[in-house]
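Structure ticket #2291
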Amino acid sequence: MAFHIHGVASGQMEFNDQRLGLYTLGELGTEDGLKVETILLDYKHGILRIMTKLMVFLEHNEEIYWLAKCTYISIFEMDEPEIFKRGASKRAIGMLKECCDLNQAHAYGQFYHMLEKNDLPLIPSQLQPIEGFQSAFQDFLAKHNDLKKRK
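Resolution: structure written out below.
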């Protein structure tokens, strides 16, 4: 493995009690969904931090209401700290994708557990395709590219 999970930090799960009550009574319909947002926070001294925000929402009468949300941060220590400092190589992009996938999987696992524990809708999820990350990866690698900074 080219990295180790150095740590995780899970935010407090928040519930929209007012909307949850109406949802459980069936007064808000059943058009629910899952919003997933993953952000590359920073990279310093070989440590990569990634945050995923998850939210279950309902759409009712063309309005969107959130039911539950949380954030989850994964901290990865790279075995080769220079991997992200040499530009947008195939290897660097692959490593970022793998770390983002793990972060999302961990975040969703915890989120799913809390939804189930609170009798909320269990929304299926899948890992985001690499196309969804391409511009963020390119920007991240350009920002940390020491080769360009030396010119």
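Closing remark: Residues 90-117 form the longest helix (28 residues).
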